[in-house]
Amino acid sequence: MQQSLLVALAEIVGADRVLTDAESLAHYGKDWTRMIEPAPSAIVFPGSAEEVQALVKLANEHKFAVVPSGGRTGLSGGAVASQGEVVIAFDRMNQILDFSAVDRQVVCQPGVVTEQLQQFAEDKGLFYPVDFASSGSSQLGGNVATNAGGIKVIRYGLTRDWVMGMKVVTGTGEMLTLNQGLVKNATGYDLRHLFIGSEGTLGMIVELTMGLAAAPKDPTVLVLGLESMEASMSVLQTFQDNMPITAFEFFSEKALGHVMEEKGLPRPFETATDYYALIEFENTGEAAMDAAMAVFEKCMEEGWVLDGTMSQSTSQAENLWRLREDISETISKFTPYKNDISVQVSQVPAFLKEVDEVVSAQYPDFEIIWFGHIGDGNVHLNILKPDDLDKDTFFKQCNEVSKDVFAAVKRFKGSVSAEHGVGLLKKPYLAYSRSEAEIACMKQLKQVFDPANVLNPGKIFDQDQKM
Ligand SMILES: O=C(O)CC[C@@H](O)C(=O)O
Ligand SMILES: [Zn+2]
């Protein structure tokens, strides 16, 4: 990068807030995807919305691209800078600015870490309900830019449902203030929702007003050994017909085996089954507990569940959650090829069976790990690299098999990315889930908000127009 440009960046954020050393470029240039080499030109750390605005204006003037960087926990390469971009890291913009108990809203800078907001809410006797294993490092700006989901979607919805307002800097450097905490606002297009899930391609989020929920009462966890994947649907329906639940997750015996071994956790109960469901509910009192026990018994009587356990304390509930939440981290050492796919909830068993057959038939030597948010129709398919296969050959073979997996996704009218975003990794497969006409509309929107294509270019789709 030209010296004059580095000087211009330093004039905006301060000289010690522009990094160009190799270690920083490697660190801030990538997210949790390890398939693409990072190659940014510089990393900048703005301290205010106005500085972000000035950076985007400079990018327009000097025709360079910017990539937003939060906690970089993404799994689709949305925050990877591999084309000489300038990375805008939001780490310094990490303050909680305001709180209203009556509105149950909190105004945050984008670099606030998810767990920081969760803790803040708890200190106020409230609850920030979007939760996932990476909440200790993921930042709110990134969560909103990817519309992060996680483990409580069945009860609380996605990140989108908690964004009550935002300030965003568009690709021309204009600052838009959207919705301002209003519950009702029927004044035309709700632009806020365009920026949510846009993966930094339409704007840089510089402030967020997030809603908070009432604190849950005594979250209690059941882990059930399922007779079959089909049985999971009867279990889900019976729970939902009889009591409110706050999570309905699943994992396979293979996933459980890895977590038990790696984390030294005991098997939850004696009987091993191919698949397990993890269900969470609020123990609001005796009636809730009786209802849960009655449903549990019914599921056993019907033969849908072969064995199971229920937490008797907070620490037991936390340990049962670890069987599900620690899977992603545990299998990361096997260089997994990841798929984050969804279909309508009722279609999950048939879909999973079909995809499992496709992958197993083509690659009988690859280990397939299934887990995910079955209550949302979202399954994570991780294919583990055999020790004796090199990384490039493995990923190449997986890319081949992806075409068959995504053909099944299309047949089931599903999504090639349920909650991890498209980024760079799922870009080649976007057309399996979105029509040509839809993609054309998305490109037109990109043109409206970022005519010079300076914001995270090449993510989600390639903009035809040149920079
Ligand atoms: O690593 C994965 O495939 C999924 C990660 C995350 O979305 C989860 O649900 O644990
Ligand atoms: Zn997930």
TrEMBL record:
It comes from the Bacteria. It catalyses: (R)-2-hydroxyglutarate + A = 2-oxoglutarate + AH2. Residues 36-215 form the FAD-binding PCMH-type domain. Its EC number is 1.1.99.39. It holds the Pfam family FAD-oxidase_C. GO terms for molecular function: (R)-2-hydroxyglutarate dehydrogenase activity; FAD binding; metal ion binding. InterPro entries: FAD-bd_oxidored_4_C, FAD-bd_PCMH, FAD-bd_PCMH-like_sf, FAD-bd_PCMH_sub1, FAD-bd_PCMH_sub2, FAD-linked_Oxase-like_C, FAD-oxidored/transferase_4, Oxid_FAD_bind_N. It is an enzyme of class 1 (oxidoreductase). Coiled coil: none annotated. Keywords: FAD, Flavoprotein, Metal-binding, Oxidoreductase, Zinc. Its cofactor is FAD. The keyword Flavoprotein applies. Homodimer. Belongs to the FAD-binding oxidoreductase/transferase type 4 family. This is D-2-hydroxyglutarate dehydrogenase. It comes from Pseudohongiella nitratireducens. The lineage of its organism: Bacteria, Pseudomonadati, Pseudomonadota, Gammaproteobacteria, Pseudomonadales.
